[in-house]
Amino acid sequence: MPLTVSQEIRDRAARGEIDPVAAAAFGNFVERCNRELMTHPVITDNRFCRWFATGRADREVVTHFVVQFSVFSNLFLIAQLLKTINAGSLEGMRASKEILANEIGVIFNKPGSGESSVTDPERDGDPAVVSTEGSVDGGTFRFRAAHFEWLLNMGEVLGLGFNDMGKRRHGSPATLFFCDQLAAIYGNEDPNLAEGASFAVENWAAAGFWKQLVAGLDAFRKREDLDLPLAFFTWHDKIEDQHAGHVMDELEELYFAPGFDEEKFMRGGKLMLDGVEAFWVGLDQHRIAASWTGD
């Protein structure tokens, strides 16, 4: 769905709170994002995810996919730490810490929900029961709530151990390129490049690929009669549905902040989407090679 200027921005321009020239320039910028970022193939036509959703992946392809995703999940911590360190404001640093702390096992605290309290020690930290809303401020740390541990639980069902997953040595060249691009661009010291990359990542994550992965894994699980936990993927699908609504709010705030550089922002976004695409192309090439048996 194309990005559009919010009614709030239109109303503020009508009231004279935003210069009409600046408001028009922002509208042009949004259209540029639609043309140059939102049309990227990794957002509009992710071939691997489209194929994966059909449920045709066999155990070898699923196992390879889980291992590569575990490498991305683990090495993402480096990029997120760099983003935290290089934040341009206290608010930006805190926003980055929210993601980082949650990734390593701090459960979101939603006041009044009771979701972060310990009701079942055996399931505390299980992505199927922890909250997708709230803040890590006041949240509870649980080893079991670390996202990498959720993937380890999947790997165990597939015959994978701790030392079979998540390390750099387990990554394919495509996966490592993606992870290195995350660190270099998403975690860049230049806030304009980093925010362009962050915007790109948010739009990729909100493009629906989580649902495609869940569909494919669920079909595989049923066909193989495996008790394969999918909550890592269903949890992320839920949280990205929530984040999608905030993308334009963040873009509007960024655009009208002092020091915004449109060209650097677009460059960061394009480079990051190319890095994301490399990851999925690598997975697609692997599944094609795995299915080829020769003449």
Structural class: mainly alpha
Instruction: Output the CATH topology of the largest domain.
Output: Heme Oxygenase, Chain A
Total helices: the number is 13
Cα distance spanning the termini = 43 Å
CATH architecture assignment of the largest domain: Up-down Bundle
Summarize the biggest pleated sheet.
none
CATH top level of the largest domain? Mainly Alpha
Description:
- With 295 residues, the protein is mainly alpha-helical.
- It has two domains: 1-36, no CATH class; 47-87 and 161-291, Heme Oxygenase, Chain A (Up-down Bundle).
- The protein is 63% helix and 0% strand.
- The chain is built from 13 helices and no strands.
- The protein has helices spanning 7-14, 20-36, 41-44, 47-52, 59-85, 90-104, 147-157, 173-186, 191-205, 209-224, 231-244, 247-255, 262-291.
- α5 (59-85) packs antiparallel against α13 (262-291), α9 (191-205) packs antiparallel against α12 (247-255) and α9 (191-205) packs across α13.
- It is globular.
- The termini are far apart.
- The model has no long low-confidence stretch (mean pLDDT 89).
Question: Keywords for this structure?
Answer:
295 residues; Heme Oxygenase, Chain A; 13 helices; mainly alpha
